[in-house]
Write a structure and sequence with these properties.
This protein is of the alpha/beta class. It has 11 helices and 10 strands. The chain folds into 2 domains: 231 residues, P-loop containing nucleotide triphosphate hydrolases (Rossmann fold, 3-Layer(aba) Sandwich), CATH 3.40.50.300; 42 residues, no CATH class. Strands 6-7-8-3-9-10 form a 6-stranded mixed sheet, with helices on both faces.
């Protein structure tokens, strides 16, 4: 079970003065159960890449193919593919429009010809999955907090029972508490077997949560590896207009200034443990 891109090229506004190749001969696969982050500078092609995963965009004619669980995405089957591969756009709460939370979540089920009882069961199950209080279902979506709206939007995708969930900047625009809750939710979904692929500009969120990082640079795959492998390349990332987690920069500076043999650190929890270890060994005095 996987999503596979083979030699995908995609061009915006072809054969016009504004023609731009956003992806150039890209091959990439995401296996079932992965928790993968896609990062890249603005205009690198990362959103274009993600939108190929469920057929929101299709490769240029005769320039690549995309397969979901072995089946090639075509115009004929793309609707079925999108039931299996859910997509949550950036700031999805801006697309909430129904008069109640329940109706907004249920909107995607209307064309499935389900009974009212089946729809209710699915909505309640999805709401429970994202820890959305059942009491909120009859309220207007515009009465909810930012984090609640984000969960409603994700719930509206989960209600179709996808195997894969794609998210464009899922924590963008939320306060720190809201960001933690959304990333905690995605981790929980992944723990239950759902494949998660998300775009993020926050290197801290990526380091704390993703198990694989794919960097898109100038329409191609620049790096692909674990967060540790990727964030060791600070100079290269900087040359691509990217950064490393704040805690990584802090310990890089400490290594240089102190002369201590300090291992690579990418998360705050690792940093705390390392400081405690160095203090206990008498190698660091604060």
């Amino acid at each position: 079970m996987s999503i596979v891109l083979e030699n995908v090229t995609f061009t915006y506004m072809p054969k016009t003065p504004f023609e731009k190749t956003a992806l150039n001969d890209v091959s990439l696969s995401v296996e079932s159960g992965e928790f993968t982050a896609i990062i890249g500078h603005t205009g690198s092609g990362k959103t274009t890449l993600l939108q190929h995963f469920n057929g929101l965009l299709m490769p240029d004619k005769n320039k690549g193919s995309v397969y979901v669980d072995g089946e090639k995405i075509t115009k004929k089957n793309v609707r079925d593919v999108r039931m299996k591969v859910g997509y949550v756009f950036q700031y999805p709460e801006h697309q909430l429009f129904e008069e109640t939370v329940f109706k907004d979540i249920a909107f995607g089920l209307k064309r499935l010809k389900l009974s009212d009882e089946e729809i209710k069961e699915r909505v309640l199950a999805a709401a429970k999955t994202v820890d959305l209080d059942e009491a909120l279902l009859e309220r207007s979506v515009f009465e909810l907090s930012g984090g609640e709206k984000r969960r409603v939007a994700i719930c509206g995708v989960l209600v179709t029972n996808p195997s894969y969930l794609l998210l464009d900047e899922p924590a963008s625009g939320l306060d720190p508490a809201g960001k933690r809750e959304i990333m905690k939710l995605l981790k929980s979904l992944n723990d239950r077997g759902m494949t998660i692929v998300f775009i993020s500009h926050s290197m801290d969120d990526v380091a704390e949560n993703a198990r694989r990082v794919v960097i898109v640079n100038d329409g191609g795959i620049g790096l692909d590896g674990t967060p540790y492998e990727v964030f060791k390349n600070r100079e290269l990332l900087t040359s691509w207009g990217l950064d490393v987690p704040e805690v990584t920069k802090l310990f890089d500076d400490l290594r240089i200034k102190s002369g201590l043999d300090i291992p690579h650190v990418i998360t705050i929890s690792e940093g705390v443990k390392l400081v405690e270890k160095l203090k206990a060994e008498g190698r660091l005095k604060l």
